[in-house]
Specification:
It is a single chain. The chain is an alpha+beta fold and 110 residues long. The protein has one domain. It is 38% helix and 35% strand. β3 and β4 form a beta hairpin.
Length: 110
C-alpha cells in the first residue's frame, strides 16, 4: 500500500512541475511567431514599425522591424509566463527577394 501511495504521489508531483526548458521553448516559439509576422508585413514605404502580438489577453511577442541599408533588421521578443526570449534577425533585400518574401528591392530613398 505504501508503495502504491509513493508511486501515485511521485506521478502527481512530477506532472505538476513544469520543466523550465519547456517554458523557454514556448517563449522561443512565440518569438518565432513574431519573426514570421514581421517577414510577412515588411512595409513598402515606411522605414519600420513596432507591434505587439496579443492572444487571449496575454502578450505573446513584441516585434520591431527597421529598414537598414540594403536590408532589414527584425527584433522579436517572445514571452511565456515569466520567460522572455529575444531574437534579432538581419536579412538582406537580395535574400528576401530570392526567397520570394518581397517582390522588388526598394530604393534607398524609400
Amino acid at each position: 500500500m505504501k508503495i502504491l501511495f509513493m508511486i501515485i504521489l511521485t506521478a502527481i508531483l512530477t506532472s505538476a512541475q513544469e520543466n523550465p526548458e519547456s517554458k523557454m521553448n514556448e517563449a522561443f516559439q512565440n518569438a518565432k511567431k513574431g519573426v514570421y509576422y514581421a517577414l510577412l508585413n515588411i512595409p513598402d514605404k515606411k522605414s519600420g514599425w513596432t507591434k505587439e502580438l496579443i492572444d487571449k489577453d496575454k502578450l505573446v511577442a513584441k516585434i520591431k522591424l527597421d529598414k537598414e541599408v540594403a536590408g532589414i533588421k527584425i527584433e522579436s521578443e517572445g514571452f511565456f509566463d515569466t520567460y522572455e526570449i529575444k531574437i534579432t534577425l538581419y536579412r538582406s533585400y537580395d535574400s528576401l527577394l530570392e526567397e520570394g518574401i518581397i517582390k522588388y528591392i526598394p530604393d534607398e530613398s524609400d
